[in-house]
Amino acid sequence: MIDDDGPHTKGLGKHLNGVQNGMVLNFQFNEWSPTCRSKREYCIRVIAVHEFGHALSFAHEQNRKDTPDNWCKEEIQGTDGDMYITPWDLKSVMNYCNPKWSGDGKLSAHDLDGLHYVYGPNKGGIVKDKVDKVGDIGRSGWKGIPSGIVAAVSHPNGKAYFFKGDKYYRFDCKRDEVDKVGTTGSSGWKGIPNQISAAVNHPNGKAYFFKGNKYYRFDFKKDKVDKVGDTGSSGWNGIPTGVNSAVNHPNSRAYFFKENKYYRFVF
Ligand SMILES: [Zn+2]
Fold first, then answer.
1. Fold designation for 151-266
2. How far is the CA of 97 from the centre of ligand 1 (A)?
């Protein structure tokens, strides 16, 4: 039902079957949330994602017993679920404690995991994850980058750094070319050894470099390595030693590659 009232559902999942006016959506915003009048499409979309989440049987994330009660003060509301699929998720569209209203209607990585767990993997071809171009490094793009690159990270200064042997190549994305070449560990990247085999950016704002059975945590503010650990035992649980390469994915995971296997890492 469309009504100028607080959007809601009268239950979760199958409990909405046949329930009259089981879902209420608001398209007007005169009586309820009038601030939405200046951004109606945004509000309609965000609300729809959340309410249809209930229709697909997902409860409010802040209802969970493992909700951090020292700072997530949102009230338990509506029917509770009967199972937890992912770790407690601040970024969930179903979490009132999400600093963005229902995550701006954008499903979090854990939301997608939950959906795929209950309803199966995405077969609809919505995600266009395929190679759409092959080029020659340094010739048709990535000017100044040599062949044989083993790792790359993005820097908070807005540039990307590529690593090979004992060298790094700073790539300026606006100029679309390498604007500096240096020696890893001596002219920058203090504490990073030569011949690393992989690197990723971490959501904690640091970058991690991998070599053999060790990882090196690089702190951009201190501009040096501030921790060295053993991959798979003191961090990076499940990542094997001697990875060949790694990359950050927009799904907020990182993928590590070793021989014929890939390892998806959840931060
Ligand atoms: Zn709700």
1. Hemopexin (2.110.10)
2. 12
